[in-house]
């Protein structure tokens, strides 16, 4: 059963301007421990790739916060929600701390899709609650 759906669109230029204004503090506020490593590596190779990575993570976290229905308030925090990639490139969501506990206690599962173009990033998250579906359909 679908618990929630969230989507977001983000202007890459806005993220680039914010990063230029606030420096690495902005990336450190938004990105979790694994994400920051990827961001730094991509940015070191090509600045625009780092900005695109930061924008996709920012947008996906916005989508996730909408899908769980709480926005950016506890236990949802930027750094406790990481958008990582499997070896195949498929994105997935890894949660930490209180957010992970809150999410697991409800038996939720999340699915994320990330798309980026020259100027924009779009993300979509579906959160489902499989246990409820199983109880309703014996």
From TrEMBL:
Gene label: acpS
Purpose: Transfers the 4'-phosphopantetheine moiety from coenzyme A to a Ser of acyl-carrier-protein.
Protein EC: 2.7.8.7
Catalytic reactions of this protein: apo-[ACP] + CoA = holo-[ACP] + adenosine 3',5'-bisphosphate + H(+)
Names of required cofactors: Mg(2+)
The protein, known as: Holo-[acyl-carrier-protein] synthase
Enzyme category, top tier: transferase
HAMAP family according to UniProt: AcpS
Organism encoding this protein: Roseateles aquae
A single MF term (Gene Ontology): holo-[acyl-carrier-protein] synthase activity
Keyword terms: Cytoplasm, Fatty acid biosynthesis, Fatty acid metabolism, Lipid biosynthesis, Lipid metabolism, Magnesium, Metal-binding, Transferase
